[in-house]
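Lecture 7 notes: from sequence to structure.
We start with the chain below.
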Amino acid sequence: MTGVVTTNETTERLEYLPGFSNEHCSEALPGALPSGRFSPQKVAYGLYAEKFTATAFTAPRAQNFRNWFYRIRPSVVQGDFQPIDRGLIRSGPITEIDTPPNPLRWDPFPVPEGPADFIDGLVTVAANGSVGVTGIGIHLYLANQSMQDRFFYNSDGELLILPQQGRFRAHTECGIVEVGPGEICVIPRGIKFRVVLPDGPSRGYVCENYGAILQLPERGPVGSDGFANERDFFAPVAAYEDREGDYQLVNKFMGNLYACDIGHSPLDVVAWTGTAAPYRYDLKRFNTMNTVSYDHPDPSIFTVLSSALDSPGVANVDFVIFPPRWMVAENTFRPPWYHRNLMSEFMGLIYGMYDAKPEGFVPGGASLHNCMSAHGPDVDAFDSASDAALEPRRYEDTMAFMFESRYIIQPTKFALEAAQRQKDYIECWQGLKKHFKA
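Predicted structure tokens for the same chain:
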């Protein structure tokens, strides 16, 4: 099995990831992985051993994530970082503008006409918490150019990436992960990568998680199966780039961007073993739980991944999806009820139509309903659902998602002032009539 990667055309090779906390091993050359010990006196092929630690050294075993890399050069072989323009990238807390309590919604943002790779095309829509401590950043990537001689890693958080238009291929230190609309790629904090766009211009959503590593939520009374299953997560096979040149390495650190010169590709890991790998998940594999009797359940039953806080059941961020599913609840208003939450909700739509907002909320768009902000079905959704025949109905070809957080999600100045913001969003509820009869 060869893992040499020198062109943008190389495709991914993935292997089953046997549980988030279980060891995964991969080598691009036979015998590159040491046997019996992680750091022998001399590594095969003249490689260097390097440990990559993604959590505290003494974290409990099930929450302890680390890799051993066996690479051509250690990561210290690079130039000095210097600050560069961060463009429209921001981190929590957002202090450049006040956060309004209003419900907010945006039309899709266009991919720029000028050259823009993944880094250039990152635009922050909102953030919360405090970078370096906990919280999240919510970004869009609007890219039309692959990264060939430029590499990136994020010291501030892990990245959950959802392409909405075009495929997204990440060449990482652990190998290659490719995802399309309806799939996700998670890249751990600190992992170096470059992004290739096999289909040309690409657009998508990014959740930058400053807090505890995303993991599968507990199932509780559901039992041993359901929701997202471990067997459906895939890690990359080892693949390395052995090439030299005048390259740039970009780092996001404490909300700012820094760059240094590097004379070789930093994706030169020939073998690795560990628990802190990038991974891919197809959202269509989510085993949806839903009511088969009455009432619309809380969206927490659609949680794919969760970054926990110290309080049980309270999340720094929950990643929730609304996939294809059957709706069979009897004598029930089936769309989400009108509601106000402690948790703040940022929603996006990958494809299809979202049942509570048949108009105005379109693929590539977004909405934000912050803590205790009232929201729910628009007038058309309410009227049609109130009179609909309550027969089994299949929701097909739809994929909406939500980043749900305990902390207030603060939109950026750019997002609040963007032409894509729907200034009349509040009007979608103003036609709701009084039906009360004493």
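Points to note: Confidence is low (pLDDT under 50) at residues 1-9. The domain at 286-422 is CATH 2.60.120.10 (Jelly Rolls).
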